[in-house]
Design a protein that fits this description.
Largest sheet: 9 strands, mixed
Distance between the termini: 65 Å
CATH architecture of the largest domain: 3-Layer(aba) Sandwich
CATH superfamily of the largest domain: Periplasmic binding protein-like II
Shape: elongated
Number of domains: 2
Order of helices and strands: HHEHEHEHEEHHEHHEHEHEEEHEHH
CATH class of the largest domain: Alpha Beta
């Protein structure tokens, strides 16, 4: 757009122009930095609790938050006396609030949520004991910003491990070009987008890297928070990572598939255990979980699924509940809510980019839920 400026002296023009230019710089800076508009917190957007109603407060994982938002909205519409306020603050913060040590009164929760199942020491720190309930599953996509590619990017194990260890720094590296024959890859520096907060999505991705790479296992291992090597930019939450990728040419980042899809981002086809290049989808994630059996503690990980058509980075996500609640209405309301999520609510998973639980896992989750008192 061409802007014509009248250069004749006029009162107030210089001031107005300065303000206009300042606002323009702010807008452009916000866009280039991947700024995300402020969202209302759960407390700010919580519907009023009717007389005699129950308010359930939860916090934790961002990975399943799109599905949780849908679940809690639909459930409230059918059960107006039960109001759920969920804050997607990340798995690490969700576990911290759930454990409840050194937590302010306004941060206290009735349930937590995490994509990394609680460790034994974390469970031991919960005064009334904890119940881990798998409620859904999904894929962690490697989304990228290379708008001129004519086809979906294919990344071998060697390539994506090398990218996130900082060993591969440019998009036209031969190790990337090898699995993308005929594709003109740009001579462009790779910027990895990673999480800056304690994250179950980070845990799921690094659990996979830990399973397939001796180099990663030796240097980093599986963790919810990583001191990432190489040319990394950090963002909070899956939504923040998706926004940063979208705003950063030449970037690639790990993000919940549903967030990549909502942001209109391209997702790489990744080489799986069987040597096939597979895109994230409900079907390929279901293949990864098809033969999985929950252990007694319900902490199931599938860091390198062997099925031929399985997507390689898939995770369950857990709701965290106390074994004992101080009042019966809260306990009963939580039991009814999550029983609905594990039964009727599963039908919403597919349309939002998640995976309905296989029947064997759903049944075990319902059994675990019945231990709530």
């Amino acid at each position: 757009m061409t802007v014509r400026v009248d250069r004749r002296p006029r009162a107030g023009v210089s001031v107005a122009l300065a303000i206009l230019l300042g606002l323009t710089v702010l807008v452009l800076f916000g866009c280039s930095a991947g700024a995300v508009p402020r969202k209302e917190s759960a407390r700010e957007s919580t519907p009023a609790v009717p007389p005699g109603g129950v308010l359930l407060r939860g916090a934790g994982a961002t990975f399943p938050s799109v599905l949780y938002e849908k679940w809690f909205s639909v459930y409230h519409a059918a059960h107006p006396n039960q109001v759920v306020a969920y804050e997607p603050v990340g798995s690490g913060e969700g576990v911290r609030r759930f454990v409840g040590q050194h937590v302010d009164a306004e941060e206290r929760v009735d349930f937590g949520a995490s994509d990394a199942a609680m460790r034994d020491d974390e469970i031991a720190a919960v005064r009334d004991g904890a119940i881990l309930v798998p409620v859904t599953a999904g894929s962690v996509a490697l989304a990228y910003n290379l708008p001129d590619l004519p086809t979906s990017l294919r990344l071998s194990r060697q390539a994506y491990v090398g990218i996130f260890t900082g060993e591969i720094r440019n998009w036209n590296d031969p190790r990337i070009a090898k699995t993308n024959p005929g594709v003109k890859l740009p001579n462009l520096t790779i910027a990895t987008i990673v999480r800056q907060d304690g994250s179950g999505t980070t845990f799921a991705f690094t659990k996979h890297l830990d399973a397939i790479s001796d180099s990663w296992r030796t240097r980093y291992g599986a963790a919810t928070l990583v001191n990432w090597p190489g040319n990394s930019m950090r963002a909070s939450g899956n939504e923040g990572v998706a926004a940063r990728i979208k705003a950063s040419l030449g970037s690639v980042g790990y993000v919940g598939y549903e967030f990549a899809r909502r942001a209109g981002l391209s997702a790489a086809l990744l080489e799986n255990h069987a040597g096939q290049f597979v895109a994230p989808s409900e079907q390929s994630a279901s293949e990864a979980l098809a033969q999985a059996e929950l252990p007694e503690n319900l902490r199931l990980y599938v860091p390198d699924p062997p099925a031929v058509n399985a997507y390689p980075v898939v995770t369950l996500t857990w709701i965290l509940l106390y074994r004992n609640y101080p009042d019966s209405p809260t306990s009963q309301a939580l039991h009814e809510l999550f029983r609905w999520c594990l039964t009727d609510g599963q039908r919403y998973a597919s349309e939002l980019g998640y995976v309905p639980l296989p029947p064997n896992i759903a049944q075990r989750s319902l059994t675990a839920l019945d231990a709530l008192r």
